[in-house]
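Hi R.,

As promised, here are both runs. First protein below:
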Amino acid sequence: MRRNQLFLPIKILNYFMLLLLFLSMILPMINILSIAFSSNKASMLPGISLWPKDFSFEGFRYIWQKENLWRPLLNSIFVSTIGSGLQTLFSAIAAFILLKKDLPFRTLILSFIMVTMMIPGELTLVSIYTLNKNLGFINTYRGLIINGLVSGFSILLLKNYFQSIPESVFEAAKIDRASELKIFRKICLPMSKPGIATVSFIAFISKWNSLMIPVTIITDQKKYTLPLILKSLVFNSSSVSGTDFVSPNAIMAAIVISTIPLILAYLVAQRYLITGMTLGSVKG
């Protein structure tokens, strides 16, 4: 038996653990889809459902028409697209600047970026609200986009990715008298597509799923994002008009709709994600 081969009991245990992990992830998704495509009455039956009972689109019609899910969906698309685009741009610029070994206080800046990644966001909620109120960002799209716009993780990942570019490429560009901006646009960005795609995808997911910031600065329902409206539906709060009852199939339908853009984003970026994450995390 080869040294790198596992004993049969260990293999069986590994496969069993992987199976449990797979089931723990897939069963909740199947349950959500099953309830979403069930009728109002069938969705209220107790227990876990793995297949739609009394197949129906009632939940989707209700959540789209009566609860106006299209508005928070458009809000989330707008905020996540603009926010992730700006975050990727700013992170790339910061990463390019941090490549300069003669940058004053470079080590101190890198240490500060690392520290910001260690502070829990919940500890800054009061200061975030106060700052946004003073800046006039309460109940504005500007507040949703600007808050969380700078990511230490994205900066460090892109910095490590830029460092994977051979130094000879930069030296050749300098010999040709290329400006720093041209080196950034013509060399760093084109040669770092996997890293750029990874940062963009992570930023989009973060903005799309963000709940803490919207809860803190948004009270106007016209500016609700999907996480906010889902929270309101689940806890039967102000999103439900009057005494209307939101059935489980409508809530699950909202969850299904909210995941579609994430799946599409993953399909677009998947060819770059593995390369971007592995190279960006190991290069130093």
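And here is the second one, sequence first, then its structure tokens:
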Amino acid sequence: MAIKITGIGSCIPENSVKNTAFLESEFKNPDGSAIPGSNETIIKKFRAITGIKERRYADNKVTASDLASIAAERAIENAGIDKESLDYVIVAQNFGDVRHKNTQSDAVPSLASRVKHYLKIENPSCVAYDVVFGCPGWLEGVIQANAFIKAGIAKKCLVIGAETLSRVIDKHDRDSMIFSDGAGAAIIEETKDTSGGILSHESATYSKNEAYYLTFEKSYNKEKQEETRYIKMNGRKIYNFALTRVPAAMKKCLDKAGFEAKDVKKLFLHQANEKMDEAICERFYKLYDSAPPEHIMPMSIAELGNSSVATLPTLLDLVSRKQLKNQDLQPGDKILLASVGAGMNINAMLYQY
């Protein structure tokens, strides 16, 4: 028995927001003071650090569960399965459905239940639930699906990552330029193949000192009297944490399966920050006294930004469909997926096509 991704799909909003859209923003420091320098300089530095030149925002009438449902339909079609045969619908999300111009989160019913409703799945034995695990949520959902199938309580699972981060950002925070919207989905199922599929995985939560590296706080504009909260992050601490913990988790995942870095064809890292991902990649290969091969790490962050739980499945979908230059996958290729995010949570998975 091999547990494999038999179908994948994504929903990437068409609305592209370029960096120039932030030229008129009033960026402030956490204490409310104005950030010195022109916005042109701030944006230039931002691009140099993150690699982001544009990001995608959902249409005003579209919610995270809408994006998730579209990605799910595409994954089901790609897998060629009957939707009624699904045992689980697992949706990774962090802020629920946030409607345009309304920062209040709505997660009742769960986004997974909304997706099941949208798909018109009648089977009551198809269980729908959400996963809140920070940016690594989609990969953690895949890990859970793998466990369900191994335990014999499921044969087919739909795992989705969906988010509309553009609706929980503080426009006075320059970090707001990082975040974007999107959704990706995959069908995980038991196959007749005896090799390949999910080979190993690793998950961890560091919360003694790291729990509040990502939080929900008031706007940096102290003149605002509202109680609305926005996503906030301690970028420097997250960067240092990721560079230490993520490569170690990736190596531990490989060790479990008895492989090394030289056996990996592609690295799929959560698209959070271009420089951070490049540094994680370098640190990982240093653990094996080697350097990253050319084109080892597909990247979508420059055009799509950071869509949290959606970045890994959308990236995988893009590469699977040969939509990224110099990136493709062949049968037998081993890929290593890894993510880091709020919690602070980390996970990694070794997968063979």
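A quick note on the second one: The radius of gyration is 20 Å. Let me know what you think.

Best,
J.
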